[in-house]
Amino acid sequence: MTQKRIINAARGIEKADLVIKNANVVNVLSEEIHKADIAICDDVFVGIGDNYSGEKEIDVNGAYVCPSFIDGHVHLESTMVLPKEFAKAVLPAGTTTVIIDPHEISNVFGLHGISFMYEAVKNLPLDVYTMLPSCVPATSFETSGFSLNSYDLSLLIDKPWVLGVAEMMNFPGVLNLDKNVMAKLELAKSKDKRIDGHAPFLNNKDLCAYIASGIKSDHECTTSKEALEKLRLGMYLMIREGTAAKDLNALIPILKEYNTRKCMFVTDDRYPSDLKEHINGMVKKSVESGVDPIKAIQCASLNTAEYFGLKNLGAIAPGYKADLLILPDLKNFKPDYVIKSGKIIVENKRLISDLDKIKTPSIRGSLNIRWIENDDFKIEAKSNIAKTIQVVPHQLITKKIYSEIKIENGNAISNIETDTLKICVIERHKSTGNIGKGFIKGFNLKSGAIASTVAHDSHNMIVVGTNDNDMCKAALALIKSQGGKVVVSNGEILCQLPLPIAGLMSDKDFDFVHEKYEELNKAVHSLGCTLDDPFLTLAFMSLPVIPELKITDKGLFDVDKLDFVDIFENKENIKNTYIVRAQKHSVKL
């Protein structure tokens, strides 16, 4: 498209390609709503005003037109579906741009994982930009598939689809001037690219140091107090509403009382059940809670674009990219039309772009596990008291408790009566043979076992069960399917969702994954589990950066001590400590 064409269409001398007539324009630049026609040529807005005409015209009769939505931080792998299936879900919700952090697949495949994601998204009617993972692996306390250093990231940092370095989880490394961490920060700064943060509860002078290092955003705020301190110090707030972590309600006061121009909406990690209402759901909830609709839309569009340096995106104005939503009202935020790069892709709330023809690149299998048998799950008993991971419902943190376990033929086994079940993490990247073993309380399984290859952050295989036979059966089922989630009882597979792509994503369509995941949860609940989402809880039991007690392929890990600990405890060492015993009560020694 020539400059002459743009200028003539903007002046009304020539017809535009597409004109939205009689719109109520939600103007995030002037923070007002005003009536106008919107003229589009090719993939850009050329004119906002009266009496434009186009080769194609849509008269919206006073409906609201706003910029389409941007997700500022998302791990696509967490959806368990391929990017094209993700796009099918979020495009009708009005999300046309996402900034991804391929941290999960990078822990499995390294740079090849990042390249896979790029190839999988490049032909979608969805703009996908990448922040390079900063912490692969997240810690040295687990075995990851790969390790990415600053040199590895330098091979991709200049790509136009790369916007910077993703969430710097290793804030102790920043504060202590870790050479590897510093090299990654300097790499991004040398290219004038963004560095995202990840610093829960960091405050005062340490927070100042973290921000001064060049890190400019954070998506881990869970209270208004924490968010306000970071806002005062110049950080952009990524307000998160994921499947596990939901922070929007807690941060509504920030959106109502303070400057929203440094706030943006992100989803981080979402399962299929939470995808069809996406960023638009956050806008809706904000408005329902009293946030000004224009400011809520800013948080979902312009603010995010400006933070990441995406010029001419996130607003309706001449020269901006023609990404827009046509909304019947400013209450439900369910678009009737979605226009992406000047093309209608959603009409009457239905996706009209055919994404099924888009091919997914191939990738090798990711499960490299030496053959396992029932005996590999045995735990030799050194005591009948075990340090036990206590699940905290609806939270990622756990507690360290002491439980009485059963002993059979010299081996510690699950105690169903006290809900003290065996948990194992099996290294699945390098065939090391590592199996971390321990006990966990909170799943309430009365029989059977469950297993998954989605286990943050290194995504080794994690298994919880009432007996070794079912645990082994579950692990073998996932080896055969090259990853996934499975429920086993009495030697029979009750339900299984294969995730053959990196052990994280399915090669099936969105509806299949959504329905199968619901079946998985029903199957686990049929075994007595009382957790709302057992597999979501299971996925975080191996994350050794969140207190108090976790387990990796290298063993039971005390997060507060930053060290591995023995499973068993001598009674003499824990006098005056409560121990979970049979009859479901605690006894003080």
Summarize the structure in words.
The strands form five sheets. The chain has a ten-stranded mixed sheet with strand order 28-27-25-26-23-24-19-20-32-33. It is an alpha/beta fold and 589 residues long. Mean pLDDT is 95; it is low at 584-589. It contains 16 helices and 33 strands. The termini are far apart. It folds into two domains: 73-290, Alpha-Beta Barrel (TIM Barrel); 374-585, no CATH class. α3 packs across α4 and α11 (279-288) packs antiparallel against α12 (293-299).
Briefly say what this structure is.
The protein has 589 residues and is an alpha/beta fold. It folds into two domains: 73-290, Alpha-Beta Barrel (TIM Barrel), CATH 3.20.20; 374-585, no CATH class.
Rg, please? Answer: 26 Å
Strand order of the largest sheet: 28-27-25-26-23-24-19-20-32-33
Multimerization status = single chain
* Count of alpha and pi helical runs: 16
CATH superfamily of the largest domain: Metal-dependent hydrolases
Poorly predicted spans: 584-589
CATH class of the largest domain reads Alpha Beta
Please tally the β strands and state the result.
33
Largest sheet: 10 strands, mixed
The portion of residues assigned to helices is 10-25%
